[in-house]
Amino acid sequence: MKLHVHERGDGDKVALLVHGGMSDHGTWHALEDVLVARGYRVYAPDLRGHGLSGRGEYRPELMADDLVESLPVGADVAIGHSLGALALSLAVERLRPGKAVYSDPGFRLATVPAGAYEGMRAMVANASSESIRAMNPRWSEADVRAELEGFRKFDLSFLAELGGFDGEYVPVAPVVPSLVQSAANSFIMTPELNEELRANGFEVRVVDDVAHCIHRDDFDAFLKSLDGWI
Questions:
Q1: Which is it for strands 77-81 and 99-103: parallel, antiparallel or unpaired?
Q2: Is residue 142 within 8 Å of 82, Cβ to Cβ?
Q3: Are strands 13-18 and 5-8 parallel, antiparallel or unpaired?
Q4: What are phi and psi of 18, to 5 degrees?
Q5: CA-wise closest residue to 111 among 26, 61, 170, 181
Q6: Where are the alpha helices (DSSP H) in the chain?
Q7: Percentage with pLDDT > 70 across the chain
């Protein structure tokens, strides 16, 4: 499907930003500011079931097809977080960015703990600024607002289908030069997976003292881990 795509900037370089599950393009507000200041034109889609994009069947392969349908080919860099990183990895051969960055990617969804999806559903359904702030005390107020806005536009049925994915999407090799950002306190990345990805030809940088949302837990550390990639 054609996705809603937020666009900003008029620079000569192009960046694609693909958000993670339950969020929307607003999660990238801080990175978007940096990229536009550095001369990029930013394209940030809302995945199906998220933000202002349509609803439908929810599988990683379909989300990848949506990216190909909705985004320009040949961007200078493409960055995906979590489920968005997974969708990007399945679309990268067709999108052909110059570089790809996978931030705490959902390549092995089977590592998600049992019952986590039910907990996520309750978290989204009952979310408030206070609950988001309490769960994420390091986030900026802008990040808290963006999360709440993303939750309000999220199709909760997505989580039921997410639990049915077979969970094994670890890429065997990078299609383009590729960086994996791995959160030290991730719930989906493990030291073993980091080493597997290195053996497969990916550059892997572990970001210390952060959880799954690296770009919101410590934006400065997130940017530092992107040195040479943006």
A1: parallel
A2: no
A3: unpaired
A4: -115, 115
A5: 170
A6: 29-37, 60-70, 83-95, 116-125, 129-135, 141-152, 157-162, 191-199, 214-217, 219-224
A7: 98
Q: What is the chain's Cα-based Rg?
A: 16
Give me the pLDDT at residue 164, please.
62
Instruction: In whole angstroms, give the CA distance from residue 86 to residue 170.
Output: 9
Q: Which residue has the tokens 């190909």?
A: 68
Task: Specify the residue for token string 């969020």.
Answer: 23
Residue 112, pLDDT score: 76
Instruction: Give residue 38's region: left, alpha or beta (phi > 0; psi -120 to 50).
Output: alpha
Element containing residue 181 per DSSP (H, E): strand 178-183
In the predicted structure, residue 199 carries a pLDDT above the cut 80: yes
Pair 26, 64: CB distance under 8 Å: no
* pLDDT at residue 114 greater than cutoff 70: no
